[in-house]
Specification:
This protein has about 450 residues and is an alpha/beta fold. Helix content is about 35%, strand content about 20%. Bound molecules: 4'-deoxy-4'-aminopyridoxal-5'-phosphate.
C-alpha cells in the first residue's frame, strides 16, 4: 500500500534506486536507457560526478538562506550566467523552483507590467490549443488541454486559445512550410482583433511543442511574424522553453534558431538537469524598468527561490555543458539519432512523421500512413508503447493529444546530451521492438 497520492495515476511502477550516465536502475537490478531524460530533464544523464561534487561542496558550505535576509554566491552567479547567455534584450533572471512556477511568475510579470504602465484592462492572454504550460492555476489556464482544465473551471486567467495551434504541416501537405507558418501566425492577429488588442496582455507559446505534440518545431518565419504581431498591438510575447530550452534543441534557447527574442522566457527542466528542482523567468529590460519606475519591484516571491543548492546544481550542469562542448554533441547526435529513426521507420506502416530539433525528437503514430488516420484513442497506443519500451529497458515519453482537431499518438525522445552512437542505435532498436509489440 502506498501513501503517495500521485500513484493514483501510476499504480504499477518499478522503484528507481540508482542512475549512472544514460541509465537508470530499478530495485530488481534492471537497467533502463533514459531516452526521454525523464521528461526532457536529465540533460547530463545521471550521477554526473562534477554535479555531485558541486552539490556536496555547496551542502557543506550553505544549504539555505532566506532571500529576505541574504543573497548567495550561487544565486548571483547563476543569474549572471543566464543573462549572459540569454536572447537579446534580456536583463534579469527571476529564480524559482520549476516549470509551472516559471510560467506562473511570467504571467504575473506581464500583468504587473501593464498595471504599472497604467493599462490595467490588459488582463487576458492568448495561447495555443495544443499546449501544456504547467499545472498551477495560472499556468493551467494558459494550457489548452481540455481534460486537464475540466475540473478547475473557471480558471483564474482568462485565456483564448487559437487554431491552427502551431506550425504543423504534416496534415497540410499541399501548403509550403512558410505559408503554413504565416497562416498559423495570422490566427493570433485575428484573435487579437476579435478580442480588442487593448484587453490582451500576452501571447504564450512553446517554440517547439513538447509534451502535447511530440516535438513539433515552429515553421520558418512563424515566430518572427508572431513577434511582429505582438509588437504591432503592444502585446507581450512569453515563450515557454521549460521543455525545449537549455540546449535541448542544439542551441541554448530554441528561439535563437527562429531569430526571435521574447519579452519573457520561462525555463526549467534541463536548467538543473534533474539534480535539483529549479526554474527561472528571464525578463527583458522594459519589464524590469516598469517595475523599477513603478511600485519598485515585482510583487511575487517563494520561500525557495534562488535556493543555494538548486543554483549550485544548475551552475554545475551549465558549466559541464559548456566545458565539454555538449551542445555540439546535441546537434551531431540529434542528426544521427534522427537518421537512424528514419532508416528504421521509413517503411513502417504506423510511423507517419519523424520530427524535432536537436535531441528533442518526436514520432507520430498513425493507423494508416496514406490517409494519416490516427489510432482510436481508446487504444491508448502511446501508453502501450511506453509500457513495452520499459519492458525492454527503454524510457520514452508518450503523448496522446489533439492535432489540429484530430486525435493523435506521439512518442517523444529527449535523451541526455552525452548520448553516443551505439546508445542511439540501441534506442532505435528497442523502440522498434516496443512499437511492434504495442501494435500486435
Ligand atoms: N511548460 C512546459 C512546456 C512543460 O513541458 C512543462 C512540464 N512538462 C511545464 C511548463 C511545467 O513544468 P513543471 O512540471 O516543472 O512544473
Amino acid at each position: 500500500m502506498t501513501r503517495l497520492l500521485h500513484r493514483q495515476i501510476h499504480a504499477e511502477l518499478p522503484m528507481a534506486v540508482g542512475g549512472r550516465g544514460v541509465e537508470l536502475f530499478d530495485s530488481h537490478g534492471r537497467a533502463y536507457i533514459d531516452a526521454s531524460g525523464g521528461a526532457a530533464v536529465s540533460c547530463l544523464g545521471h550521477g554526473h560526478p562534477d554535479v555531485v561534487a558541486a552539490l556536496q561542496r555547496q551542502a557543506e558550505k550553505l544549504a539555505y538562506a532566506h532571500t529576505s535576509f541574504f543573497t548567495s554566491e550561487p544565486a548571483e552567479a547563476l543569474a549572471e550566467r543566464l543573462v549572459a547567455d540569454a536572447p537579446a534584450g534580456i536583463s534579469h533572471a527571476y529564480l524559482v523552483s520549476g516549470g509551472s512556477e516559471a510560467v506562473e511568475a511570467a504571467l504575473k510579470m506581464a500583468r504587473q507590467y501593464f498595471v504599472e504602465k497604467g493599462e490595467p484592462q490588459r488582463g487576458r492572454i492568448v495561447a495555443r490549443r495544443q499546449s501544456y504550460h504547467g499545472n498551477t492555476l495560472g499556468a493551467l489556464a494558459a494550457g489548452g488541454n481540455a481534460w486537464r482544465r475540466a475540473s478547475f473551471q473557471p480558471l483564474l486567467v482568462e485565456t483564448h486559445h487559437i487554431d491552427p495551434c502551431y506550425a504543423y504541416r504534416y496534415r497540410q501537405p499541399g501548403e509550403s512550410e512558410e505559408a503554413y507558418g504565416r497562416r498559423a501566425a495570422d490566427a493570433l492577429e485575428a484573435k487579437l482583433l476579435e478580442l480588442g488588442p487593448e484587453t490582451v496582455m500576452a501571447f504564450v507559446a512553446e517554440p517547439v511543442v513538447g509534451a502535447t505534440a511530440g516535438a513539433v518545431p515552429a515553421a520558418p518565419g512563424y515566430l518572427a511574424r508572431i513577434r511582429e504581431i505582438c509588437d504591432r498591438y503592444g502585446v507581450l510575447l512569453i515563450l515557454d522553453e521549460v521543455m525545449c530550452g537549455m540546449g535541448r534543441t542544439g542551441t541554448m534557447h530554441a528561439c535563437e534558431q527562429d531569430g526571435v527574442a521574447p519579452d519573457l522566457l520561462a525555463i526549467a527542466k534541463g536548467l538543473g538537469g534533474g539534480y535539483q528542482p529549479i526554474g527561472a523567468v528571464l525578463l527583458s529590460r522594459r519589464i524590469f524598468d516598469a517595475f523599477a519606475e513603478g511600485s519598485g519591484f515585482f510583487q511575487h516571491g517563494h520561500t525557495y527561490m534562488g535556493h543555494p543548492m538548486a543554483c549550485a546544481a544548475a551552475l554545475a550542469v551549465q558549466e559541464v555543458i559548456a566545458r565539454d562542448g555538449l551542445l555540439a554533441n546535441v546537434r551531431e547526435m540529434g542528426a544521427y539519432l534522427r537518421e537512424r529513426l528514419e532508416m528504421r521507420f521509413a517503411d513502417h506502416p504506423h510511423v507517419g512523421d519523424i520530427r524535432g530539433r536537436g535531441l528533442f525528437l518526436g514520432l507520430e503514430l498513425v493507423a494508416d500512413r496514406e490517409t494519416k488516420e490516427p489510432f482510436d484513442p481508446a487504444l491508448k497506443l502511446h501508453a502501450r508503447v511506453k509500457t513495452q519500451a520499459m519492458a525492454r529497458g527503454l524510457m520514452v515519453y508518450p503523448a496522446g493529444g489533439t492535432i489540429d482537431g484530430s486525435r493523435g499518438d506521439h512518442v517523444l525522445l529527449a535523451p541526455p546530451f552525452i548520448l553516443d552512437a551505439p546508445t542511439a542505435e540501441t534506442i532505435v532498436e528497442r523502440l522498434g521492438q516496443a512499437l511492434d509489440a504495442a501494435l500486435s
